[in-house]
Amino acid sequence: MEVSTFLKYILSFICSILLISGPAFAGANVAVKGEGDEVPSYVRSNITGFDFHGEDLHLSSIAGAVARDADFSDVDLHGTTLTLSDLKGSNLNGIDLTDTLSDRVNFQKTDLRNAVLVNMIASGSSFAGAQIDGADFTFAILDSEDQRNLCKIADGVNPTTGVATRDSLECN
Known about the structure:
alpha+beta
């Protein structure tokens, strides 16, 4: 078995455990991120069209959520779990997705301009039709086909990290 196939199986297993151990109903639940700090959880919620602009949602969970056409612009989601979420058509302009588990996420037709996606695991995700000018994908784990397709449209420099989108995707 190839290493990449093995890693995909392990990642799938871990994501399944995370979803199974989550709440059994939709809605915003609360988890604790630090003493006195609450973190909203939108596991398996329908948050289509919600406006989260500028919020600090780091370490939260949006796994299995339907969040089409939502506004996550300038949101801090670093360290978040987005596994199996549907973000199609959402505004993710300027979002921080550093260190996120974002496998099997629908990023189709999203606005990822100026997003920070450093160390993101996004295997099995779809970025078809996404806008990525100025996005930083440094050390992100993407399917090779996604990486090739994103390189075709990669342009700009991330205003936060100063890294060129093409360089972060390791485009030739």
